[in-house]
Design a protein that fits this description.
190 residues, mainly alpha
């Protein structure tokens, strides 16, 4: 074994600049990685918030539908009770007597015109409200007959007020049949 002196190699300049380049490269990737991570966290947070918002809306809608279901179930129960009542002949008879005024053969129907005079009680406020608004308390069949009488009693010429071309010709022979201008000298827009 021979002894040779150990000679160190001189370090070249390009290798030292290579280390500097990698060091500066690492310094530039830190902020970029931070902003990318921040962006990913922001997008993830938005997605989570959106999912919770959708969940809250769906939960609210579910609760609303459950309340609506309970109301409809109560209505169904009431309607089934009404159907069961109408299956009872005594209830049907009572309704015919009350609503339509039917009586059995041999009975005499008596209707008190002013029940408040007999009982001393004031009429219901609903009845007063109906008469003030123009609604009547007559049964539907009496109201129908009354409306037929009213419509038959009206004069057809009264509804037209004599403004047809034929009635104007009969009233004024000089008027032409083709014009519909007012005869009182007013403008056509009135």
């Amino acid at each position: 074994m021979s002894k040779r002196p150990h000679v160190s190699k001189p370090q070249s300049a390009p290798s030292s600049s290579k280390k500097e380049r990698t060091h500066t490269k690492g310094a530039n990737t830190g902020p970029i990685a931070f902003f990318i991570a921040l962006f990913v966290i922001a997008v993830g947070s938005i997605q989570i918030i959106s999912a919770f918002h959708t969940y809250a809306i769906n939960l609210s809608e579910l609760n609303s539908l459950k309340k609506q279901e309970a109301v409809l179930a109560a209505q169904k129960k009431d309607l089934e009770n009404d159907i069961a009542r109408w299956d009872d002949p005594a209830y049907v008879t009572a309704q015919a007597r009350e609503r339509l005024g039917y009586v059995f053969p041999g009975e005499q129907a008596i209707k008190v015109e002013h029940p408040e005079a007999v009982s001393g009680e004031q009429p219901k406020s609903d009845a007063n409200a109906n008469t003030e608004t123009g609604q009547s308390n007559l049964p539907w069949y009496s109201e129908l007959a009354y409306s037929f009488k009213e419509s038959d009693a009206r004069n057809p010429d009264a509804t037209n007020n004599g403004n047809t071309a034929e009635s104007r010709q009969q009233n004024d022979p000089d008027a032409t049949a083709g014009t519909d201008a007012p005869q009182d000298g007013g403008s056509a827009g009135q």
